[in-house]
Design brief:
Strand order of the largest sheet: 1-8-5-4-2-3
Largest sheet: 6 strands, parallel
Number of strands: 8
Radius of gyration: 22 Å
């Protein structure tokens, strides 16, 4: 009897500890009879999926042995032109040679890939009869390699078959893929953990992507020494991606409020809404960002800070890879896709570029001010983790406090002063809104519903930050 009383006591403690805000109440229990979609409009379950992760200084040297263990006979190594000359790629190729692994290198990955650059990589993958794929680089490289693996294993598929609706057909991936080993060289995207591949869809001038657990890497080899090669601004923009991954997944619509309820488990999306397990990863990633990001940006030789941000990227990747992101990311896609002349500092590219992390973080003060009324406790907790004093703050002021905390964080890291500093103005807002509307895969996970007018106001508020 004492044991039963103890269990009841613990369950009641959990219930009291659960967030009471409207968007996250009842997160931990759904009651009997939930496990049928015939009587439900919203989902009743969530899944956790992630790549296997190996972390440690120098673990890249093991990749040749991994490929031997897989019985690899013909390996496709994907990277970009800049990285092909840097130590991370050199370390991987040396390990392949040492272990007598046959490989071919594709080094034409585009930073911030497009549908055109994806298709070029896919053509290379289809022509090579590869049995294993290896991606060495940031999110652009890893995402490109995921797409190449997917379409090489589905040679009859149309390119839009697996692309997220409403841009593409959003078909589920039913066939097996080849093993993919990801070796991330930036501390930001978390792509080594997720089943998501993002690209610019040039006809719409907006980003979209492919989201399926089937495309996630088999193994992520996270070697913190690789982050030492990141220039300062690359470290900053990558870190902003981690920051927003953590904030958005922690404040996303709870999984049991997401609709529709899938008729079959294969239809349950990779981005499911916040849940008790993703919350743990997202919250811890945010804590690491608060502690280490400024150090990692300001001192490229601070191995502890850069290593910790690399690990924070993994943690945030596991969190958002299952919970999803929402408005910051949904609005970022047209910001990147409509870029005109902005030349990003620290990036060796021959085209106008708004780095992904920068495009995401510039709207964050406006977005979290907007979403805070739905779950103020979570917004206050995030502000506190980032250094704000919340002791005398009212729940209704949670959004303003988190927005101010984010502005101060961005100012201290010398971030451009809003979308206006990237060449955007009020006349561009309609196009930015149009580019956001197709991003329903993420925008529908916002804890607060929104209209086109709301999006216009959020873009307007993001034109200037300080």
């Amino acid at each position: 009897m004492a044991g039963r009383d103890r269990v009841v006591h613990l369950l009641r403690q959990l219930e009291r500890a659960a967030c009471r805000c409207p968007a996250h109440s009842n997160t931990f229990h759904q009651g009997a009879g939930a496990a049928t979609c015939t009587v439900r409009k919203t989902d009743y379950a969530f899944e956790m999926a992630s790549s296997n992760i190996r972390y440690g200084e120098g673990v890249s040297r093991e990749i040749g042995m991994d490929l031997q263990n897989l019985g690899a006979r013909n390996v496709c190594v994907m990277t970009d032109k800049n990285l092909s000359r840097l130590p991370p790629v050199k370390a991987v190729l040396e390990s392949l040679v040492k272990n007598r692994v046959q490989y071919k290198v594709y080094d034409k990955v585009r930073v911030e890939p497009t549908d055109t650059s994806f298709k070029d990589a896919i053509a290379f993958a289809k022509s090579g009869s590869f049995d294993v794929f290896v991606a060495v680089g940031g999110g652009s490289v890893i995402d490109t390699c995921k797409a190449a693996n997917l379409y090489a294993c589905h040679p009859d598929a149309d390119f839009l078959d697996f692309v997220n609706a409403p841009v593409g057909k959003g078909k589920p991936v039913t066939g097996a893929l080849r093993p993919l080993i990801a070796v991330p060289t930036t501390a930001g995207t978390g792509s080594e953990t997720t089943g998501v591949a993002i690209f610019d869809f040039e006809p719409l001038k907006a980003k979209t992507g492919i989201a399926s657990r089937a495309i996630r890497p088999t193994l992520g080899i996270v070697d913190p020494t690789h982050t030492l090669s990141m220039p300062e601004r690359v470290a900053a923009n990558s870190g902003f991606d981690v920051l927003c991954h953590a904030l958005e997944s922690y404040t996303a619509l709870p999984y049991h409020q997401r609709s529709p309820c899938p008729p079959n488990p294969i239809n349950r999306p990779a981005y499911q809404g916040s849940n008790p397990i993703s919350d743990v990863w997202s919250r811890h990633a945010l804590t690491m960002v608060a502690k280490y990001m400024k150090r990692a940006v300001r001192d490229p030789e601070d191995l502890e800070a850069r290593s910790s941000m690399h690990l924070a990227s993994v943690f945030a990747g596991i969190g958002f890879g299952n919970a999803g992101v929402h408005l910051c990311h949904g609005m970022s896609y047209p910001i990147s896709g409509n870029v005109k002349t902005h030349l990003a500092k620290g990036y060796s590219v021959d085209h106008a570029l708004v780095p992904h992390g920068l495009s995401v973080v510039l709207t964050s003060p406006a977005v979290f001010s907007f979403t805070a009324p739905m779950c103020p406790e979570r917004h206050l907790e995030a502000a506190e983790i980032l250094g704000a004093d919340v002791r005398q703050v009212k729940r209704e002021d949670a959004g303003a406090l988190l927005a101010d905390t984010l502005r101060r964080f961005l100012f201290e890291l010398q971030v451009e002063d809003g979308l206006g500093a990237l060449g955007y103005g009020p006349d561009d807002i309609p196009a930015l809104v149009r580019g956001t509307l197709p991003q329903e895969r993420v925008t529908k996970l916002s804890p607060r519903g929104h209209t086109e007018d709301d999006l216009s106001q959020l873009f307007a508020a993001s034109m200037k930050l300080y």
